[in-house]
């Protein structure tokens, strides 16, 4: 696939890195010569210095032969125009635009980016996607990662097996026998730096990270089964009142009004504006790296500190300081992958990887076959995929006990007619079922083939 990416910043770099690893033909356009030099020296991509919305630059990058354009510059208007030009002049089939300004995304303007109004197939708001991820992690504090599929009916939850985990050293097939009514399946295990697809004979060990696919309503019970019964935060401090911090604070006011939230923002004008728009949140003007400011936010009494500024260093240091000053738990937003492995060593309990969220949204549209949703885990080593089964799928009509899946794939749940089904030996997949599965990176092509649109379908 030939892909043009407009924008070589953190989001653009992450997308280019993943797509180039999969042998796609990737060209990147950015006005910054230094960013273009960096991306071409570190990745197998072509780079062009220029304006991504200008026709001559798109032509130079090969837009006349492109299958997709992904416009993820910092400027919404540039992204919108780039997609429009790619459509009008080069007939690029798939156009994805990053939209940051929340005014564009208000419910009353929901039709703005529909195909009849603009030539944009998909809009991505990394800030909102990351905000939703933060809210899920706040709601389920025992989860290391959590994503929803099948119209929010199915959840993938990553759970760390601690010393007191009651299910360690127990074969997975025995867990199914002990809890027959629990709609949950362990699909993969991350152990000592290695990711493996789970088998029914496998046992979990202390220190493992288990990837479990379950019915949404069974998420808390699943976490409890693994020994994670942490309570939701009643007192919360947020660092950063940007798009993500504001989104999280406002959502908590709407959904969890009893939660006490304090929001720290360095920019005085932004702090005043956000304070006017929030009703129950206390907004403080100052630096999250200032101990006096943290004391003013009563950090010693807080259950959770969530750092959501634009600086990885600020997020890491302020979360670590909060823990040292008595905050029960810390969560940091970290863009740079090289920082993410340092968190536990300095006392940060959880981190959010915004690249993973954004890249997953893009992969959903890169994948072939009836792929409805994708979420990349462990820096792209595997994906959790939701796919729709067609009549021509080789999986349809075959009992699970007779199903010979390619290596590196494990099915976690089936969504059929509003009901979540857990795989068992007798279950057969039907056409139009939504299948949520775990696939290692080298097995993704097999998944695409299993859910491809065959010529027999037409």
Distance between the termini: 24 Å
| Mean pLDDT figure | 92
pLDDT < 50 stretches: none
How much of the sequence is in beta strands? 25-35%
Describe the sheet with the most strands. 6 strands, parallel
Number of helices: 14
The best one-word shape is: globular
Oligomer: single chain
Number of strands: 22
Instruction: From the alpha carbons, calculate the radius of gyration and give it in angstroms.
Output: 23 Å
Structural class, judged by helices and strands? alpha/beta
The level of helicity is 25-40%
Enumerate the strands of the largest sheet in spatial order, edge to edge or round the barrel. Answer: 3-2-1-4-5-6
Tell me what the structure shows:
This protein is an alpha/beta fold. 30% of the residues lie in helices and 25% in strands. It contains 14 helices and 22 strands. The strands form four sheets. It has a six-stranded parallel beta sheet with strand order 3-2-1-4-5-6, with helices on both faces. Helix 1 crosses helix 13 and helix 5 crosses helix 8. The relative contact order is 0.10.
Labels describing this entry:
14 helices, alpha/beta, single chain, globular, 458 residues, six-stranded parallel sheet
Describe the structure concisely for a colleague.
The protein is of the alpha/beta class.
């Amino acid at each position: 696939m030939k892909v043009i990416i407009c924008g070589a910043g953190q989001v653009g770099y992450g997308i280019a890195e993943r797509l180039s690893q999969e042998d796609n033909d990737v060209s990147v356009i950015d006005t910054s010569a230094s960013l273009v030099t960096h991306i071409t020296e570190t990745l197998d991509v072509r780079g062009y210095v220029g304006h991504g919305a200008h026709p001559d630059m798109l032509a130079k990058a090969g837009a006349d032969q492109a299958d997709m354009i992904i416009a993820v510059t910092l400027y919404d208007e540039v992204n919108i125009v780039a997609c429009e030009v790619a459509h009008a002049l080069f007939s690029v089939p798939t156009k994805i635009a990053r939209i940051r300004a929340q005014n564009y995304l208000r419910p009353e303007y929901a039709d703005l980016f529909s195909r009849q109004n603009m030539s944009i197939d998909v809009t991505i708001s990394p800030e909102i996607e990351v905000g939703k991820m933060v809210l899920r992690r706040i709601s389920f504090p025992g989860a290391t990662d959590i994503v929803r599929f099948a119209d929010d009916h199915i959840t993938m939850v990553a759970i760390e097996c601690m010393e007191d985990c009651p299910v360690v050293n127990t074969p997975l097939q025995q867990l199914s026998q002990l809890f027959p009514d629990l709609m949950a399946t362990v699909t993969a295990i991350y152990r000592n730096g290695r990711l493996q697809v789970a088998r029914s004979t496998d046992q979990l060990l202390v220190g493992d990270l288990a990837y479990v696919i379950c019915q949404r309503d069974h998420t808390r019970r699943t976490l409890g089964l693994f020994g994670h019964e942490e309570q939701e935060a009643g007192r919360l401090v947020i660092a950063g009142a940007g798009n993500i911090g504001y989104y999280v604070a406002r959502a908590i006011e709407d959904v969890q009004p009893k939660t006490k939230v304090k929001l720290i923002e360095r920019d005085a004008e932004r702090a005043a504006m956000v304070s006017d728009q929030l009703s129950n949140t206390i907004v403080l003007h100052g630096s999250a790296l200032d101990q006096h400011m943290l004391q003013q936010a009563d950090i010693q009494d807080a259950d959770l500190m969530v750092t959501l500024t634009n600086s990885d260093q600020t997020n890491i240091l302020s979360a670590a300081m909060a823990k040292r000053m008595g905050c029960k738990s810390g969560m940091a937003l970290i863009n740079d992958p090289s920082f993410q492995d340092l968190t536990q060593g300095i006392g940060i309990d959880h981190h959010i990887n915004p690249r993973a969220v954004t890249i997953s949204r893009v992969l959903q549209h890169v994948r072939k076959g009836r792929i409805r949703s994708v979420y990349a885990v462990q820096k792209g080593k595997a994906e959790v995929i939701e796919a729709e089964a067609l009549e021509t799928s080789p999986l349809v009509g075959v009992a699970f006990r007779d199903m010979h899946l390619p290596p590196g794939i494990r099915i976690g749940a089936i969504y059929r007619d509003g009901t979540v089904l857990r795989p068992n030996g007798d279950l057969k997949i039907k056409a139009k079922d939504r299948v949520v599965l775990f696939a290692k990176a080298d097995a993704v092509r097999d998944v695409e083939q299993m859910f491809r649109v065959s010529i027999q379908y037409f």
